[in-house]
Amino acid sequence: MQTQTYTPPTNADYDEIGKFTRLADEWWDKNGAFKSLHDINPLRLNWIEDQVVAHLGTPLMGKRVLDVGCGGGILAHSMAVRGADVLGVDLGEENLQAASIHAAKTGMADTLKFRCVPVETLAAEQKGQYDVVTCMEMLEHVPDPAPIVQACFDLLKPGGVCVLSTINRNPKSYLFAIVGAEYVLRLVDKGTHDWHKFITPAELDSMAVGAGFSRFDMTGLHYQPITKRFWLSNRNVDVNYMMAFVKPE
């Protein structure tokens, strides 16, 4: 894992980062604290690749991909398995250690790298270097998501694809994402989310368009607690959702 010395970024909430680094040993326990991320990963991976194919004409194989806020590398690893050359960045060093160890154990270290670096810093270093940028379940954990979105835009090559995911802000999302997921179903730990930091699709779209993106597609992520089934549908983005954007040529 490559690390570097840098001034701690102001656009980071270290209490939020600590929520995930304290659980770093559980990233690759598919029945542990991050079980729900493992459960939804095939859905979001397939949707990301669908967006890449729809816009770039070919799948992830051979693409240079950046995963922003990669945590323990669940999504980053799965994109590397599909043949992408992946860099995952995060501000939680313990998360990256777990990700790097897993990459080495699974023989993916050649195509899957990790760095502890703010994405804004990386954007200044590697402007226009990536075919695909993903940022999943991170924007609702930072003080100001707009600079993160701008950095994602700057890091993409012209014509590149960016996929962002977050949680809508409305009474239903409070009921489902906090009361339901944290207290009733215990899909994630209590205190994982702050409803006031949730982002509406209109707000995210405005950030992305302000950064220079064109919107490409959007879908919602849904969960049935009785059958424990996750699925995607663009007919409802009331709670968890993903949006795909394109950097114009």
UniProtKB/TrEMBL annotation:
InterPro entries: SAM-dependent_MTases_sf, UbiG_MeTrfase
GO molecular function list: 2-polyprenyl-6-hydroxyphenol methylase activity; 3-demethylubiquinol 3-O-methyltransferase activity; polyprenyldihydroxybenzoate methyltransferase activity
Enzyme class per UniProt: transferase
EC number: 2.1.1.222, 2.1.1.64
Keyword list, A-Z: Methyltransferase, S-adenosyl-L-methionine, Transferase, Ubiquinone, Ubiquinone biosynthesis
Gene Ontology annotations of biological process type: methylation
Pathway(s) where this gene product acts: Cofactor biosynthesis; ubiquinone biosynthesis
Family under the similarity heading: Belongs to the methyltransferase superfamily. UbiG/COQ3 family.
NCBIfam families xrefs: UbiG
Protein name according to UniProt: Ubiquinone biosynthesis O-methyltransferase
